[in-house]
Amino acid sequence: MPKFAANLSFLFADAPFSERFSRAAAAGFAGVEYLFPYDWAAGEVAAWLAAAEVEQVLFNLPPGDWAKGERGLACLPERRAEFVDGVELTLDYAMALDCRQVHCMAGLRPSGLAESVLESTYVANLRHAAGRFASIGANVLIEPINSRIDMPGYWLDDIGQALRLLDRIGCDNVRLQLDLYHAQIIQGDLARTIESNFDRIGHIQIADNPGRHEPGTGEIHYPYLFALLDRLGYAGWVGCEYKPLAATEAGLGWRERLAGG
To answer: pTM for the complete prediction?
Structure first.
């Protein structure tokens, strides 16, 4: 059975953030991830992790002004200095939280700039981030996010595009974050996508489609995919980044039904 990590930005959302770590542990999760920790001091978050005895699996680099709709900085040439500062802040948190994978959001596609400029900016920024995180043995992840439903205008919205960027970036510690919910919307063919790119995948996330709810509530055949991950020898975490239909605990039976846990 894969190792499941609770995404605390989505699960246990009826509780304050500080309480979600212990809720996750009580529900049987050994790892946690979330979008951003920067509203809290790194020492506070580290204490919540230690008290709950859960592992910090993943979090994102600063995205710009999230409340105003910004969704990352990596492809934006006029935000290079802010991106570099964000790398250093993330590095501090990663060390404090003993986290060895971080996700770099690409950003929304700006108007009036050539695709070549956006791509060159993105590649340069990812190479910079890769160098800094290599100093602590950490990976930087890139994730194709669907721009049709969840994040209109997102620049990195195609799996083929992500794979081409990995080739161009050319750093061993820059890897693919494959969210199977987004991948289903972008192109489907999930089993073949996993198999053909298995050696490039650093992290997997899950939700069902449509609705982005628990596995087993939609069209994705997760029993087959979980068995495939086991058969391929996937040793990483699977982040549960879904919107519970009711209280989080009430919907966790999918782990036993679909994954044998």
So the answer is: 0.97
